[in-house]
Amino acid sequence: MPAGTHHPATAVPPPQRRSATQEAPWVRVTLIAVALLFLTLFLFVPLVSVFVEALKKGVEVYLAAITEPDALSAIQLTLTAAAIALPMNLVFGVAAAWCIAKFDFRGKNLLLTLIDLPFSVSPVIAGLIYVLLFGLQGWWGEWLRDHDVKIIFAVPGIVLATIFVTFPFIARELIPLMQSQGQEQEEAARVLGASGWQIFWRVTLPNIKWALLYGVILCNARAMGEFGAVSVVSGHIRGQTNTMPLHIEILYNEYQFAAAFAVASLLAGLALVTLVLKLLVEQRVKREKQLAGELE
User: Fold this and answer.
1) What burial class does residue 212 get, using C-beta atoms within 10 Å of its C-beta: 0-12 exposed, 13-18 middle, 19+ buried?
2) CA 90 to CA 51: how far, in whole Å?
3) If we measure between CA atoms, which residue out of 225, 251, 256, 230 comes closest to residue 241?
4) How far apart are CA 30 and CA 39, in angstroms?
């Protein structure tokens, strides 16, 4: 090699960048194992045990427990309360989300705070508030008694308590979505001469339909499973003001374990149906987002 020449510098490969979510295999395996163990111990095993205990004494005992008059009354009242609370929360949730996401006004932050109130207040306290307002010794108790109107220890009180604990769900699902979508489409429709109702039905509603359905599913599940607030305002009158969770508690306290687990299995079945519907909605939303990304 001639004098004065140098060896060419050896090319050094650039350091490989490590993904923020890339971990060693043993870390991933450990985390997955811990998660599965936790779900098995605290979710799957208790859920399976409910159905096992419900059918422990045979199908005849199971059917007798869920078809006796008090159980049927509890099932009917639970479905009735959910059927009344759901559409009312639907109207309120859409209206509140539309106002908060599309307009600026005084009291906007206060409205957001009030929507979150049931998340921060114990359901038992919510029930006590209704007793304070509508109970015999409450603010309006004498007037209600004089006009023969029963709210506490009656179906109206149960419905009011159910509405209170469930009204944030739909609004809270819609508000972030509607804020992220902005107002461009609604403004374009208004420029083209569309009325307010036409904008809502043809522009806003199609854009929020899956989030709305998701919120409805969560709201319905919470309504059927509510215990604390309903327990305070119901009076625990068998065959009249007991919902399914209250009926389960009474049966269990009376050592009627087979009947208690039978009714509990119905409630668990409704929860599983809700979970399946929730999963289907999530998958549909994911497919629509993927399709929209491919079209872009």
Assistant:
1) buried
2) 33
3) 230
4) 14
What is the SS3 string spanning 234-272? HCCCCCCCCCHHHHHHHHHHCCCHHHHHHHHHHHHHHHH
State CA 282 to chain mean position distance: 14
Q: Which residue has the tokens 């559409």?
A: 87
Taking the C-alpha atoms of residue 218 and residue 90, their distance in angstroms, rounded to an integer, is 12
Q: Are 115 and 96 in contact (CB under 8 A)?
A: yes
Q: Report whether 50 contacts 261 (CB < 8 A).
A: yes
- φ/ψ bin of 236: left (φ > 0), alpha (ψ from -120 to 50), beta (otherwise): left
CA dihedral 71, 73, 78, 82 (to 10 degrees): 150
d(CA 95, CA 176): 14
Highest-scoring range by mean pLDDT, 9-18, 257-266, 276-285: 257-266
Least confident of 48-62, 121-135, 278-292: 278-292
Q: List the one residue out of 86, 100, 84, 102 whose CA is nearest residue 200.
A: 102
Residue tagged 């009204």 (tokens)? 167
Higher-confidence residue of 13 and 223: namely 223
- C-alpha torsion 118→121→122→127, nearest 10: -70
Q: For the whole model, what pTM was predicted?
A: 0.81
248 CB burial (10 A radius; 0-12, 13-18, 19+): buried
Please spell the DSSP secondary structure of 213-237, one letter per residue. HHHHHHHHHHHHH--HHHHHHH---
- Cα separation, 250 vs 258, in Å, equals 12
